[in-house]
Design a protein that fits this description.
Number of helices: 2
Radius of gyration: 16 Å
Mean pLDDT: 88
Number of strands: 5
Protein name: C2H2-type domain-containing protein
Order of helices and strands: HEEEEEH
Structural class: alpha+beta
Strand content: 5-15%
Strand order of the largest sheet: 2-4-3
Low-confidence stretches: none
Helix content: 10-25%
Largest sheet: 3 strands, antiparallel
């Protein structure tokens, strides 16, 4: 890998390309691209029951008020999915691109 010391043990190009994507995290200032932990629209809060803490604060993301996310960026969808599925993380939402619901 040109970015780190990772050495590929197989010759599968898709494995290498997937690894390289882990270094290409979206810019924190560019909310129009990449994979974001953006929570859910405020009006959907009740659908998540106790998944969203009562003291959670709403925030604006891409012109829409949301709640339940941490606004971290991820280089790949599966990484965002693992973040959302982690029992030690209080974030809710779907693993989708910044411009998707």
């Amino acid at each position: 890998c040109p970015e780190c010391s990772w050495i590929q043990t197989s010759r599968r190009m898709p494995d290498f390309q997937r690894h390289v994507l882990t270094h290409r995290r979206p810019d924190q200032r560019d909310a129009d691209s990449g994979w974001w932990c953006k929570g859910v629209p405020v009006e959907q809060r009740e659908l998540y029951g106790n998944g969203i803490p009562k003291d959670a604060k709403a925030y604006e993301f891409r012109g829409k008020w949301r709640i339940g996310g941490c606004l971290k960026t991820f280089s790949r969808r599966d990484a965002l999915g693992r973040h959302l599925d982690n029992v030690n993380v209080r974030c809710v939402g779907k693993a989708c691109r910044a411009d998707q619901e």
